[in-house]
UniProtKB/TrEMBL annotation:
Keyword Membrane: yes
SUPFAM superfamilies: Thioredoxin-like
Keywords: Isomerase, Membrane, Transmembrane, Transmembrane helix
Listed transmembrane segments: 6-27
Single GO MF annotation: isomerase activity
Protein name: Thiol-disulfide isomerase/thioredoxin
Organism of provenance: Kribbella shirazensis
Length: 185
């Protein structure tokens, strides 16, 4: 009986050690996958920008909104070329790209009057982080997912960017650095 119990303990110990080695292997592979996914910009959304908003040449619908610094924003207020960024408070790539967008906006001639940042937030979403990051360099408007500005541009994904002039979208992109910098007015 003692021999049987000893053999059973040895077998259980070997199975336990093999299980532990297998667990370490799985954890190592998960870390490798996590690092590989982190290196892919926008993950699986890389091919979505083609339909993330209306295409260049499309007209923007009429809208009226008020920015966080109490300035009225309308389609007519964007007669000169204006850089527009669309962000969602619940979107990790939006939070990641907002500081870069704000830094890029610092180089736009005309400053805040030529840069509009829309922050979409609903329910429990807190837009304050994005508003704080973008507010110094862009006119920021906060609205819900069914808000007038996102609907006027036909936005379906976040983040997405465009340049608009005289009520017409002139360029769109998923990466704002690929958009033309608005010319001085």
């Amino acid at each position: 009986m003692t021999t049987f119990l000893t053999a059973l303990v040895v077998v259980v110990g070997i199975v336990g050690v093999l299980n532990l080695l297998l667990l370490f292997g799985v954890v190592r592979r998960l870390k490798e996958h996590d690092q590989a996914i982190a290196r892919i910009p926008y993950g699986g959304m890389q091919n979505l920008p083609a339909d993330s908003m209306r295409s260049p040449g499309s007209a923007v619908d009429d809208f009226t909104a008020v920015s966080t610094d109490d300035v009225a924003v309308t389609k007519e207020s964007m007669t000169a070329e204006t850089l527009v960024g669309f962000f969602s408070a619940s979107c990790a790539p939006c939070i990641e790209s907002a500081p870069k967008f704000a830094a890029h906006a610092a180089g736009v001639p005309g400053g805040k009057d030529r840069v509009l940042a829309l922050v979409v937030a609903d329910g429990g979403d807190d837009p304050s982080e994005l508003v704080g990051v973008l507010g110094g360099r862009a006119r920021v408007v906060v609205e819900g997912y069914d808000g007038p500005i996102a609907a006027a541009f036909g936005v379906t994904a976040f983040p997405t960017y465009c340049v608009v002039a005289d009520g017409t979208i002139t360029a769109t992109a998923l990466e704002f650095t690929t958009l033309p910098v608005p010319a001085p007015a």
